[in-house]
Design brief:
Elements lengths: L2 E3 L8 H5 L5 E2 L14 E2 L9 H5 L5 E3 L9 H10 L4 H4 L26 E5 L3 H13 L3 E6 L7 H4 L6 H4 L1 H6 L7 E5 L6 H4 L3 E4 L5 E2 L12 E3 H8 L14 E5 L3 H10 L3 H4 L6 H9 L4 E5 L11 H8 L4 E4 L3 H8 L15 E2 L13 E5 L4 E6 L3 E6 L6 E4 L2 E4 L3 E2 L28 E3 L2 H4 L7 H18 L11 H8 L1
Parallel strand pairs: 5-6, 5-8, 6-7, 8-21, 10-19, 11-12, 11-19, 12-15, 13-14, 13-15
Antiparallel strand pairs: 1-4, 2-3, 9-20, 16-17, 17-18
C-alpha cells in the first residue's frame, strides 16, 4: 500500500524532507520543482510509513486505499507522474531508495554573528516563510508588520472558504506569532521608519492589483476585478459587497481563481454554512439570483490555465457544462490521452448553448467556454453583456455582472523602484539594487506565479541573500531606538 498526494497540495516540500526513502518528487533542486501542479508520491517506492502525511501542513496526503469519491483519481494521478521512469536505474542502494543529492551547506554564518533586527512587511505565505527561516535558522529579531487588522494575507483573504485544508497552513504560520524574538504589529502601515530602525527590511506585499484587459467597457459598473469578489466572500475589510441580482455572471479567465469564484457563486449556500465564508457574503448568496456562471477561456481544453486538481473539484459537483460551440473542443476532449487536462472533461456534458435564452430554471450550473476572449463589454450605465470572439464570428452573451479574473499584478511600494511592465520591484535574488538593506519576496519579487509552496524557496533565496550581505558587511547602519513607540503611535 502507498500514500498519495491529493488536491490541496501546497507544494512547499515539507513532506519531502521527512520521507525516509526519497519517494516524493519533484523535490527542491530538481528541474520540475515549481513547475508541476503538485508533488507526487512514487507508489513503487513508498514504504507506507506515513511520515509525509504527518508533516503535510494542508492535510493533502492519505493512504491510497482510503481515497474515495473525487479523491480516488489521485492514486492514478500520482502514479502517472512516474510512468515510464526507470526507478531502479535511479536507485543507489536498493529499489526503495532514490539517489540522494549531495549535502548542501550554502549558508555558513560566523560563530560570532551578531543578531540582526529585520522587519518583514506582509503576513501572507511569502512573508511568513521568510519569518520562519529567520527565526529557525538565525538568531535574528523580527518585527512583522501588516496593514490589515488580521494576519494571514493570501491564506486568510485569498484561499476559497470551502478549501479548509488549504487554509490550515495558516495555523503553521500562526505558531510564529508568539515567538519570543518576534513582534507582531497589525493594522500598521509600513513607513520609512522601518528602514531607519532595522538592519534590513523584507517586503512581501504580494500582487493586489487586477491585470487590465484593455477592452472597451471594462470599467462599466458591474465589471468587477476578481480580487473584489474573492475579498468579499472571504471578509476582507476593504472589499465592497457584491450585487448578485443577476441570473448570469461572466468570468473572464479560467485559472484557479476563476474556478473558485464560479464554484462559490453557484454553490448551495447551505453547503457553505460551515466554511470560513464571510457571514454577509453567505446571506447575500442565499438571497441572490445567480444561476449560471460562464467561464471564458482564451485557449483550448488541453491548455487551460486551471490546474487539474481544481477542475476535478469543480467537475465533481455535477453542474459543469462545456459549451460545444467550436468543433476543436470536442476533438481535443475526445482525443485526449490520460494525464492531459482535456481528458478530465470526457465525462462532462456538452451543450450548444443558446445565449438568447435565460439560464435554465431549477438548477445552478457553470459553463466552460473555450477558445473565447472578450471583445467588449456591452452596456450604457452598467454591464448588460459581453461580446466574445468565436470561430463563427462575434457572439453576444447577456450578463448582468462580469468578473475579470485574468491575473494580478503588483503595485508600487513607496520608496522602492518599480517595473510597471512586470508589476514587480526589480531585484537580484531578492536584493533591491540601489536601496541597501531592502529585500523583496513573493509575488512582488517574481510576479504573480506559483502557489503557496512556491513562496518557500522564494523566501529562502531572499533570506540567504540578506544573510550574505550581512556577513559581507553590506548592510547599512540603522537607528534602532524608539521603533516600538513609533509603531504603537501609528496603530
Amino acid at each position: 500500500m502507498a500514500f498519495a498526494i491529493t488536491q490541496t497540495c501546497c507544494a512547499d516540500a515539507s513532506c519531502v524532507s521527512v520521507c525516509p526513502v526519497n519517494c516524493i518528487h519533484p523535490a527542491p533542486g530538481e528541474p520540475d520543482f515549481g513547475r508541476t501542479e503538485m508533488l507526487y508520491i512514487d507508489p513503487g517506492t513508498c514504504i507506507d510509513c506515513g511520515a509525509c502525511a504527518d508533516a503535510c501542513p494542508v492535510d493533502a496526503i492519505f493512504p491510497a486505499v482510503d481515497l474515495t469519491g473525487p479523491l480516488r483519481a489521485y492514486e492514478e494521478i500520482n502514479a502517472e507522474y512516474y510512468a515510464g521512469r526507470d526507478v531502479l536505474a535511479e536507485a543507489s542502494v536498493a529499489p526503495n531508495f532514490h539517489r540522494w543529492a549531495p549535502p548542501d551547506f550554502g549558508r555558513i554564518l560566523p560563530s560570532d554573528f551578531a543578531p540582526l533586527d529585520v522587519a518583514v512587511v506582509g503576513t501572507g505565505p511569502a512573508g511568513m516563510y521568510a519569518v520562519e527561516d529567520l527565526l529557525l535558522h538565525t538568531n535574528a529579531r523580527v518585527t512583522l508588520v501588516d496593514r490589515l487588522p488580521v494576519a494571514g494575507g493570501l491564506i486568510r483573504y485569498g484561499v476559497a472558504p470551502d478549501h479548509p485544508s488549504t487554509k490550515k497552513i495558516g495555523e503553521t504560520f500562526a505558531r510564529f506569532h508568539d515567538h519570543p524574538r518576534l513582534r507582531l504589529r497589525l493594522g500598521v502601515e509600513a513607513g520609512p521608519e522601518l528602514a531607519g530602525r532595522h538592519d534590513a527590511v523584507i517586503y512581501a506585499v504580494g500582487a493586489t492589483q487586477a491585470r487590465r484587459l484593455g477592452v472597451p467597457g471594462e470599467d462599466l459598473p458591474g465589471s468587477l476585478p476578481a480580487a473584489t469578489v474573492v475579498g468579499w466572500y472571504n471578509g476582507h475589510p476593504d472589499a465592497a459587497p457584491v450585487d448578485l441580482s443577476t441570473e448570469r455572471v461572466v468570468v473572464v479567465g479560467a485559472g484557479n481563481v476563476a474556478l473558485d469564484i464560479a464554484r462559490i457563486l453557484t454553490a448551495d449556500p447551505d453547503a457553505l454554512a460551515d466554511t470560513a465564508i464571510a457571514p454577509a457574503a453567505l446571506a447575500r448568496l442565499r438571497s441572490g439570483k445567480v444561476r449560471e456562471v460562464v467561464l471564458l477561456a482564451r485557449r483550448g481544453p488541453s491548455d487551460a490555465a486551471y490546474t487539474r486538481p481544481e477542475l476535478l473539484a469543480l467537475a465533481a459537483r455535477g453542474d459543469l457544462v462545456v459549451d460545444a460551440h467550436d468543433p476543436r473542443i470536442a476533438a481535443a476532449i475526445d482525443g485526449a490521452e490520460p494525464g492531459d487536462k482535456a481528458a478530465l472533461l470526457q465525462g462532462v456534458p456538452r451543450e450548444a448553448v443558446d445565449w438568447s435564452s435565460p439560464p435554465p430554471d431549477g438548477r445552478r450550473r457553470v459553463i466552460l467556454r473555450f477558445h473565447s476572449a472578450p471583445v467588449s463589454f456591452r452596456g450604457d450605465t452598467e454591464i448588460r453583456g459581453v461580446t466574445v470572439s468565436g470561430p463563427a464570428g462575434e457572439v453576444e452573451i447577456p450578463a448582468g455582472r462580469v468578473v475579470r479574473a485574468a491575473g494580478f499584478r503588483g503595485a508600487a511600494v513607496a520608496g522602492l523602484p518599480f517595473d510597471a511592465e512586470t508589476g514587480t520591484v526589480p531585484n537580484t535574488a531578492g536584493r533591491v539594487e540601489g536601496v541597501p538593506g531592502t529585500y523583496v519576496a513573493g509575488w512582488i519579487k517574481r510576479g504573480p506565479s506559483g502557489g503557496i509552496g512556491a513562496n518557500k524557496e522564494c523566501a529562502r533565496e531572499t533570506v540567504g541573500t540578506l544573510l550574505e550581505d550581512a556577513v559581507a558587511g553590506r548592510l547599512p547602519r540603522r537607528r534602532r531606538s524608539g521603533l516600538r513607540a513609533k509603531l504603537r503611535g501609528r496603530a
